[in-house]
């Protein structure tokens, strides 16, 4: 509850901080507290008090000299019921507010045709909003895919028939391409051909090398500069912050229009620069930005933070839907990984929005293959029970890689936050980009983009493939059956295996330092690339073992001589899923995403075995996934629902004040003056105050938020004549008669929450933690025989849990 941001004494100072230089470092970005771009409009008709248990709307009142109460503040006060930046919403109050609004609309719908139409439009608005989110997100995802593909190819050359064509589209209409060199056509020229007239020799190689590095540095420089100059929130993946926002935390501007614009542009630049990052994670952030902006078109979602979070949960599903072409997987991802509150109605709307987004992206057809992703594959070769052993080995590798990556990346990000390294974000991005481009160009598997690499590794070789991975020696021996001929590896395969082994170590190391820099950076594609490389290496090894040793006991039972029994691309797919599962700890949603990617229902069992093994191994080495680890690193007030509370502490052990602390600051329901209350506000930085009958009895009456109190007192001074510091403040429904000569009184019953959640001092903390998780509470009051003893906030619980886990309790930064 202690938040210095609440220390100001007027609504104007609350809404417009005095200093524009008040900055904080969050999620690797320098954030400005003065950003009010995403503050909900304070409409005159906004009823900030709806949802309180007393149902009253009068925020203040004056008393004339004869004791008659002049209720000048019965109309809603703008700002009351809203939340300050970097604070947690009150889920109970927001849901109550929405129930009251819905009850009022339903009751009025029976009175007139116009009210009935308003009720129908209110019910339909949610589906219309989902339609708009799906259309907008799908269109943006298509533009990002097309632009990233073009800029990635621009590092290697340009199309003479139209500079806006990428390499593949440029050569589509050419009649001068050959089967062996299908990627070469007169219309597409490398930079060496353009600048030097030759595509062969050392000079041409150096020219292409330098242009590759220069383009990579230019793209990354533009990305980091745009992020720092216009939208600091646009850096990183965005999923840790989305999870925190969906749990009820307020981060103004994180889902605003500037963040959307800059993230869309810089995501294309960052992916095209060749850094070891992906666009899939940031697409969730982009979709949530679209949802938040479109929410402002509908009063129901603009004025209610809990309803808005239902929409953001659906938007997270849309982001995964357009990232992987997996609508069902996207819905399950939102349910399993990011959402804090996911009612059945949100499930249906998430599915509809994900469907619309996938349809929109399919209509754009960004890759020209009628698919939603670049690495869509179809396998038809059956797998055998013996192959479960290598699949489980891939799961073990994925779990080990996930645990290593999380520890290494968190250590690097902590070093970035606590040392001078964090003061030079532009230099860091340029250095990492330069090293990445320098080391990746000589190896064809690190030079290509992450999506192209995964597509290459997932591919099952056929007669039409000219890849090095498909350079098998031709054999004249064929089995007299429906099986394909055996495929002994040729020199090209062995060369590719060495290059892939080097690419594996390169990707593992460079991804650790790339994720978390001041550019948009997703983790799905780099993690899948690491697993796909490891899986392809193991798949080729298994393939050659089955070919050369088909008389072995473990092989001859299911693989006959000359038959093509092993599909290396399947191993790459299983390895990709295992590594992504080890890093993120996704399970069900990841299986469905991979199934939707491949269309292979028969491969669900290998995927499930590898992903569950990966999760078990990773959980044995560390319980947190990468997103939870970054939430804890940044000090966000996030109560993880998957984490068990196994300690035997009581509420009195956690509540404040402690024995050595000053007494709890309370307000009395009558007898305090405006000046006294303003003095309490000025001398403390608490987010709210319990209201008691009297200082002597300490009998609890209710709870009032600091923000509501400040705004109401400021409004009473401005709009009610005669209110001075000596005016008495009452939280009573009926104000007693006042002396004729006294100043008018201020009635604040309307902003008082008469049903705050309370527990006794002997309540086990395991129960209290469950209450906070399931009800989304901001605070809970502690009583003993009806007398107020103290208060427990969400921050207190997080600090206590950190302390019990031998972590630094001061790492929890926000309310």
TrEMBL record:
Entry-linked Gene3D superfamilies: 3.90.1280.20, Clc chloride channel
Gene symbol of the encoding locus: LOC120066009
Source species, domain of life: Eukaryota
Regions that span the bilayer: 127-151, 202-227, 260-277, 283-299, 311-335, 388-410, 422-441, 496-516, 523-542, 570-595
Location(s) in or outside the cell: Cell membrane; Endosome membrane; Golgi apparatus membrane; Membrane
UniProt domain CBS: residue ranges: 655-719, 751-809
PROSITE patterns: CBS
Protein name: Chloride channel protein
């Amino acid at each position: 509850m202690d938040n210095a941001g609440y220390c100001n004494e007027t609504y104007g100072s609350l809404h417009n901080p005095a200093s524009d230089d008040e900055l904080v470092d969050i999620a690797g970005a320098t954030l400005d507290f003065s950003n009010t771009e995403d503050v909900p409009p304070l409409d005159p008709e906004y009823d900030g008090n709806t949802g309180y248990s007393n149902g009253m709307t009068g925020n203040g009142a004056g008393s004339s000299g004869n004791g008659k109460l002049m209720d000048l503040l019965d109309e809603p006060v703008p700002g009351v019921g809203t939340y300050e930046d970097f604070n947690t919403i009150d889920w109970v109050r927001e849901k109550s507010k929405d129930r009251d609004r819905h009850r009022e609309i339903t009751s009025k719908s029976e009175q007139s045709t116009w009210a009935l139409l308003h009720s129908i439009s209110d019910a339909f608005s949610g589906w219309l909003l989902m339609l708009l989110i799906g259309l907008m997100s799908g269109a943006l995802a298509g533009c990002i895919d097309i632009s990233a593909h073009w800029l990635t190819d621009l590092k290697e050359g340009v199309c003479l028939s139209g500079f806006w064509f990428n390499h593949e589209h440029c050569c589509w209409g050419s009649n001068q391409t050959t089967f062996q060199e299908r990627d070469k056509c007169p219309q597409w020229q490398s930079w060496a051909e353009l600048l030097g007239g030759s595509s062969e020799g050392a000079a041409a190689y150096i020219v292409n090398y330098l242009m590759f590095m220069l383009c990579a540095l230019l793209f990354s420089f533009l990305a980091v500069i745009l992020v720092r100059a216009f939208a600091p929130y646009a850096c990183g993946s965005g999923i840790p912050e989305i999870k925190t926002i969906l749990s009820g935390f307020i981060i103004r501007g994180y889902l605003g229009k500037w963040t959307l614009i800059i993230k869309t542009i810089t995501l294309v630049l960052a992916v095209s620069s060749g850094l070891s990052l992906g666009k899939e994670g940031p697409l969730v952030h982009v979709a949530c930005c679209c949802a938040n902006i479109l929410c402002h078109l509908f009063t129901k979602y603009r004025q209610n933070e809990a309803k808005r979070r239902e929409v953001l949960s659906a938007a997270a599903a849309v982001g995964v839907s357009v990232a992987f072409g997996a609508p069902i997987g996207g819905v399950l991802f939102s349910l399993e990984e990011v959402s804090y509150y996911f009612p059945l109605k949100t499930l249906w709307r998430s599915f509809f929005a994900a469907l619309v987004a996938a349809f929109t992206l399919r209509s754009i057809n960004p890759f020209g293959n009628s698919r939603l992703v670049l690495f869509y594959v179809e396998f038809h070769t059956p797998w055998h029970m013996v192959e479960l052993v290598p699949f489980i080995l891939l799961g073990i590798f994925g779990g080990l890689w996930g645990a290593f990556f999380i520890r290494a990346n968190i250590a690097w990000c902590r070093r970035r936050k606590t040392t001078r390294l964090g003061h030079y974000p532009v230099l860091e991005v340029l250095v990492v980009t330069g090293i990445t481009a320098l080391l990746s160009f000589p190896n064809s598997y690190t030079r290509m983009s992450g999506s192209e690499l995964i597509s290459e590794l997932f591919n099952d070789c056929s007669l039409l493939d000219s890849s090095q991975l498909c350079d098998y020696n031709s054999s004249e021996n064929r089995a007299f059956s429906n099986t394909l001929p055996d495929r002994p590896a040729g020199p090209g395969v062995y060369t590719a295996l060495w290059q892939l082994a080097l690419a594996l170590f390169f990707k593992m190391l460079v991804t650790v330092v790339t994720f978390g820099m001041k550019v948009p950076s997703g983790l799905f594609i780099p993690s899948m690339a690491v697993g796909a490389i490891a899986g392809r290496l193991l798949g080729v090894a298994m393939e050659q073992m089955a070919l050369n040793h088909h008389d072995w006991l473990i092989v001859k039972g299911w693989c006959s001589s000359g038959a093509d029994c092993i599909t290396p691309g399947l191993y790459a797919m299983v390895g990709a899923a295992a590594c992504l599962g080890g890093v993120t700890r996704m399970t069900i949603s990841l299986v469905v995403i991979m199934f939707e990617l491949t269309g292979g229902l028969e491969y669900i069992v290998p995927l499930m075995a590898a992903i569950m093994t990966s999760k078990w191994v990773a959980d044995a080495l560390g319980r947190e996934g990468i997103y939870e680890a970054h939430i804890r690193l940044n000090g966000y007030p996030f109560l993880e629902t998957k984490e068990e509370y196994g300690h035997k502490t009581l509420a009195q052990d956690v509540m404040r004040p402690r024995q050595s602390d000053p007494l709890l600051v309370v307000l009395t329901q009558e007898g305090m003056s405006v000046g006294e209350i303003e003095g309490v506000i000025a001398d403390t930085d608490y987010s709210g105050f319990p209201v008691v009958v009297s200082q002597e009895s300490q009998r609890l009456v209710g709870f009032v938020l600091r923000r509501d109190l400040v705004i109401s007192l400021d409004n009473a001074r401005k709009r009610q004549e005669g209110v001075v510091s000596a005016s008495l403040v009452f939280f009573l429904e009926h104000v007693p008669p006042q002396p004729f000569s006294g100043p008018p009184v201020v009635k604040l019953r309307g902003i008082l929450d008469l049903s705050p959640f309370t527990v006794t001092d002997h309540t086990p903390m395991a129960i209290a933690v469950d209450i906070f998780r399931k009800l989304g509470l901001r605070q809970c009051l502690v009583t003993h025989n009806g007398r107020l003893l103290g208060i427990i906030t969400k921050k207190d619980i997080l600090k206590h849990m950190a302390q019990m886990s031998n972590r630094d309790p001061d790492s929890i930064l926000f309310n």
